[in-house]
Design goal:
CATH superfamily of the largest domain in chain A: Type I PLP-dependent aspartate aminotransferase-like (Major domain)
Structural class of chain A: alpha/beta
Number of domains of chain A: 2
Number of strands of chain A: 13
Distance between the termini of chain A: 26 Å
Helix content of chain A: 25-40%
Shape of chain A: globular
Oligomer: homodimer
CATH architecture of the largest domain in chain A: 3-Layer(aba) Sandwich
Mean pLDDT of chain A: 97
Number of helices of chain A: 11
C-alpha cells in the first residue's frame, strides 16, 4: 500500500471487502499474511508484469501462485480461448477439443494411458485417492507429514470444521525418508490403497527439498509389492520441471498423477492422468462438475501445452531461475547477508540465515516490493516463460535493495 | 448420431475418446446414459440453440445442465468477460470486481451478510458443511435420502472408492417429511451441526416436488432450537426461481447457502453466502483454490446477475416454462398419452404414465431430438432467458413428434 493510505484504492477495496467477505479474503491469496506494503488487489497483468490497484507495477515472481507458466495474457493461449469462446463453452456435452486435449496429455506424459478433467487441484488429488481406493478395494493412504495436497476436509491444513473420520485412513511418513515410508506401509498391513507424494518437498516456510531418487524408487517398490497406487501430486510443479511429469528425470512413473495450476496458463482446469491398471476403477467412481466439460479452458490448455513444447518451457524457466539464483547469491555475498536458496530453479525459495522470526525475509520482500519486484517470503516462487534476462536483472536490482534493507538490520 | 455412422463425426470422436478417457466420459454429461440418437459432442451454441459435431441444430432444454441462464454466449456477459480478460484473470490476488460481485450478492440475497467464491457446486456445499461444523463445534449433518449435493466422497452417488468414515456423521431424513427430520435431529442429540436441503426435491427419475412450506419452516425451527445451521443447497435452482434465494417465496431464510451453475452464465464459479452467525467460522476454515480469485468469471457473474435483474429473469423463465407445460399437456391429451409434469415451470420434468422401464420416455426424447428439440428423459430440464415464445413453439412441434412416437407404442 502507498504511504498515503487515505488515497489508496487498495486500502479502500480492502475496507469494503471486510464487510462482505469473512476475513477480507479466504485462503492463500490473502495479503494480510504478507509483509508490510503488499497489495491485495490487481487491475492488470501482462507477461511477467503485474499492476496493482494503486498503479504500481511489479516484476512478478509468483505467477498467480503458479498458473501463469507462459506469462499473463499469453497471446497464443488467449487467442485459442477466444476462438473457442466464440463457439461455445459449457454445453450439454464437451466440444471436440476435449479429445484433442486428452490425446495431447496421453501423448506427452509417459505413464498416462488416460485422463480425466476437473477444475481444482483438490478435485484431482481427491479423485486420485478415490480411484486408488476403488481400484484396490482398500482404504489406507500414506501422506507425507506437512505436505499440501489441497483444501478438502481430508487434506486441508486447518482442522476447523474437519472431523476425525475425514482423516481416518491416512497414515504419515516423512518426505525423502524411505524407512518411514516402509514403516507406514507396514502399519497399513493389507489395507494399503495408495502412497501420495508431491513432486518435490515444498512445505511452507522451510527449505525446499528435491526428491531423493532412492526415496522415490522405494515408494514405487512399495506400491509394486503391495499393489497400492503410487500417486504423484504434480499440481504445483507440473509442466514447469518436465513436460512428461516431474519425476521423468528420476525415471520413476506413478500409477496416477494430479495436475492443475500451469496446465492452461491461468484458465481453471485440472487433470488426473492414470495407467491402464486403474482405468476400470476410474470408470466406476462418480466425480463430476457443472463446468468440467467447459471447452474454453481446454482450448487454452491445448495451446499452453503446445507452446510449452515449442519453447522448451522447462529449460527456459530453469535458465532464468539459475540466472536469478546466481545473481542473488553474488548480491547476498556482497551485502554480507546469509541466505539459503532451495528448490528447483524454476520454483525457487529464498530464506535467510538466523531468521527464526522471519523479520529478515519480511524486510527483504517489503524493500524489494518498493523497488518493483513481487517476491514471496515463505512460499516457493514461480518463474514463467515470459521471464527474460532483462526481467531477471530488474528483479535482481530490486533484490539488491531488499538485501540492503536486511544488511541495515545488523 | 446420424444413421450413417461411418460418416458421423460424433461417432469418430467417441471412438477416439474411449482410448484416452475411461468410459468415454466421466459423470453426468456422458451421452451413453441417454436414449438412442443423442450426440456427445457440441461444436457451437447461441441463445437456446445448440449445434452438434454432425451439424444438427437443437432447441435446447438443458442449458448445459443449468449454467446457461441467459442463453449461450449472451452478448452482455461475454463482453464483460472479454473486458476483464483483456486486463487479467488469475493474478497474485483478486481484481476489484471481487468486491463488486460480493456486494452484488449480499445486496441481492436477504440472508447473506457475506460470501465466499469457489469453482464447483461441490466446493460450495462442502464449504457450507465445514463452516457449519466449525461454527457449532458439532459433527452431525442431516441429509435427505436420495438428494444430490455434489460429487465429493461425502456426497457422491457412487460408493466406489468411498469409505464408511467419509459419511460417518450423516443422518438421513425424507424430503418434505418434517416428522422424519425431527427424528433424525433427535438421533443427532447434542451433536447436530447442520441440516442441508435442496431448494426443491429433484431426485433423478422421479417426479419433482416443490418444498412443502411446513417442512421448510420445521427445518428452520429445528435449527433455531438446536443452534445448528440451516444450509440451502441452491446450486441447481439458484437464480432461476428467485434472485434472492429459492426459498424467498416461502419466507424462510437459511444460515448458509450454496450457489453455482447459473451464477455466471456458464463461466466456472460457485459461491457460499452466509449470515453473521457463521462469519467467524468462515474465517477459520481453510478452503481455497488456484483459480478461485479468477476475475473473468467474477466479471461474468456481475453481468449475469445484473442482466437477470433487468430482465426479471425468473418471471420470464416461468412464463416460458408455463407456455411449454400448457402446450405439452394439450398435445399429450390429443395423442391420448398419459404424462406427468412436475417441478417449477423454469425447471420442468416430463415423465410418462405406465413407464417403469422408461421406454416411453426414451422414445419421446429420441423422436423429439430428431425433430430438433433436446429434452432429457429423467433429469429436470432448464429454461433460460433466451427462450422466447417462438422457441417454445418449435420445441412443442418436436414434442408432438415425440408424443406420436409414444402413441405408436400402443
Amino acid at each position: 500500500m502507498p504511504n498515503d493510505l487515505a488515497n489508496s484504492l487498495d486500502a479502500a477495496l480492502r475496507q469494503r471487502a471486510r464487510q462482505v467477505i469473512p476475513g477480507g479474503l479466504w485462503g492463500h491469496l490473502n495479503a494480510a499474511n504478507l509483509p508490510e506494503g503488499y497489495p491485495q488487489y490487481f487491475v492488470s497483468a501482462e507477461g511477467c508484469r503485474l499492476r496493482d490497484a494503486d498503479g504500481r507495477e511489479f516484476v512478478d515472481f509468483m505467477c498467480g501462485w503458479g498458473p501463469m507458466v507462459l506469462g499473463y495474457r499469453n497471446p497464443m493461449v488467449e487467442a485459442a480461448a477466444r476462438r473457442q469462446a466464440e463457439q461455445g463453452d459449457a454445453m450439454n456435452g464437451p466440444a471436440p477439443v476435449l479429445v484433442e486435449l486428452a490425446e495431447t496429455l496421453v501423448g506427452m506424459i509417459p505413464h498416462a494411458d488416460w485422463c480425466l478433467f476437473q477444475k481444482n487441484g483438490t478435485d484431482a488429488t481427491t479423485a486420485c485417492v478415490t480411484i486408488a481406493r476403488a481400484g484396490t478395494g482398500r482404504r489406507k493412504v500414506l501422506v507425507a507429514r506437512g505436505s499440501y495436497h489441497g483444501a478438502a476436509p481430508w487434506c486441508t491444513p486447518s482442522l476447523a470444521g474437519v472431523t476425525t473420520e475425514d482423516r481416518a485412513h491416512l497414515l504419515h511418513y516423512d518426505y525423502n525418508d524411505a524407512a518411514s515410508l516402509q514403516v507406514a506401509a507396514e502399519e497399513a498391513k493389507g489395507d494399503l490403497a495408495a502412497v501420495i507424494v508431491t513432486a518435490f518437498r515444498h512445505d511452507m516456510g522451510r527449505d525446499l527439498e528435491l526428491p531423493d531418487p532412492a526415496f522415490v524408487r522405494a515408494a514405487r517398490e512399495i506400491c509394486d509389492v503391495t499393489g497400492a497406487a503410487l500417486i504423484l501430486d504434480d499440481v504445483r510443479a507440473g509442466f514447469r520441471l518436465h513436460l512428461g511429469g516431474s519425476w521423468e528425470g528420476i525415471g520413476v512413473r506413478p500409477d496416477l498423477a494430479a495436475y492443475s495450476k500451469a496446465i492452461a496458463n491461468g484458465h481453471a482446469l485440472s487433470a488426473v492422468t492414470g495407467n491402464d491398471r486403474f482405468r476400470e476403477a476410474a470408470t466406476r467412481i462418480y466425480t463430476t462438475g457443472s463446468f468440467w466439460c467447459g471447452a474454453v479452458s481446454m482450448a487454452a490448455a491445448v495451446a499452453t501445452l503446445n507452446e510449452l513444447r515449442r519453447l522448451d518451457g522447462p529449460a527456459h524457466m530453469r535458465a532464468m531461475g539459475e540466472r536469478f539464483r546466481t545473481g542473488l547469491a553474488a548480491l547476498a555475498a556482497r551485502h554480507g547477508v546469509g541466505i539459503r536458496q532451495s528448490g528447483p530453479a524454476q520454483m525457487p525459495l529464498v530464506l535467510f540465515e538466523d531468521d527464526a522470526d522471519a523479520r529478515k525475509g519480511a524486510a527483504f520482500c517489503s524493500a524489494a516490493l518498493r523497488a518493483g519486484a513481487y517476491f514471496h517470503p515463505r512460499h516457493n516462487m514461480f518463474l514463467s516463460c515470459a521471464h527474460q534476462a532483462a526481467d531477471i536483472d530488474l528483479a535482481l536490482q530490486a533484490a539488491d535493495a531488499g538485501l540492503a534493507a536486511v544488511a541495515r538490520m545488523g
